[in-house]
Automatic annotation (TrEMBL):
Residue ranges the record marks as coiled coil: 81-145
The Leucine zipper with capping helix domain, residue ranges: 149-205
InterPro entries (alphabetical): Hop2_WH_dom, LZ3wCH, WH-like_DNA-bd_sf
Protein name per Swiss-Prot or TrEMBL: Homologous-pairing protein 2 homolog
Keywords annotated in UniProt: Coiled coil, DNA recombination, Meiosis, Nucleus
Gene3D superfamilies listed in its UniProt record: Winged helix-like DNA-binding domain superfamily/Winged helix DNA-binding domain
Main subcellular localisation: nucleus
CC per GO annotation: condensed nuclear chromosome; DNA recombinase auxiliary factor complex
Annotated organism of origin: Seriola dumerili
Family: Belongs to the HOP2 family.
Cellular location(s): Nucleus
Transmembrane domains' residue ranges: none
């Protein structure tokens, strides 16, 4: 396509090939992406082709429609039209069948792509077997241990812990009350008093009384 004809030859060939009516906007949309034609250039080229008689132009309201000059095509009789209609129907049916086949093949391809290969499957099986072996070894170790704690012993430990925590809280509260009572008549700070009498608090030892 030369720059001189501004796409006119391309548009003429397109309209003759398709042999159906188009607006300038239709032709621009159909050819712009592949051939990079501008809309203004398309409009001017089609007006020029119509002016030269190479294509036909019809006006419907404010819109102009362009189509190939039918005089260049040979006449088609009824038998030929029926044959073409049959061929079109066959091609439509074939296209639908191919579309369906493509969809099925695409679905199969996606399923295969999401599946593991034989090598990946074998690798995963080896990893799972190794993991199972580790779990079996841990289970056997637990079963063979002689220092199991019975439910009764466990319950006893928890009960004793509850008693000790309760006593801890009680003594902490009593100690705090006594210290606060002494501090009412003590001229120095609480920290200085604790240092003087040698008292270490839970906070000094970085421990916290359990909530229960």
């Amino acid at each position: 396509m030369s720059k001189k004809d501004n796409g006119a030859s391309l548009i003429l060939a397109y309209l003759n090939e398709k042999n159906r009516p188009y607006s300038a906007q239709d032709v621009f949309c159909n050819l712009q992406k592949q051939h990079g034609l501008g809309k203004t250039a398309v409009v001017k080229a089609m007006e020029l082709l119509a002016l030269e008689g190479k294509i036909k132009e019809k006006t419907y309201g404010k819109q102009k429609i362009y189509f190939a000059d039918q005089a260049q095509f040979k006449d088609v009789n009824d038998a030929d039209l029926k044959a073409m209609d049959c061929q079109i129907s066959e091609l439509i049916a074939e296209a639908q069948s191919l579309t369906q086949s493509c969809r099925q093949l695409d679905a199969e391809l996606k399923e295969l792509n999401s599946s593991l290969t034989t090598e990946e499957m074998m690798s995963e099986i080896r990893e799972l077997k190794a993991e199972c072996s580790e779990y079996r070894a841990r289970l056997e170790k637990i079963k063979s241990a002689t220092n199991h704690v019975t439910p009764e012993e466990k319950e006893k430990v928890y009960k004793e812990r509850t008693v000790y925590v309760k006593e801890w809280k009680k003594r902490k509260r009593l100690a705090s009350d006594m210290i606060n009572a002494i501090l009412e008549g003590y001229p120095k700070s609480k920290k200085e008093f604790l240092d003087e009498v040698g008292v270490e608090t839970d906070e000094d030892c970085k421990v916290v009384v359990p909530s229960n």
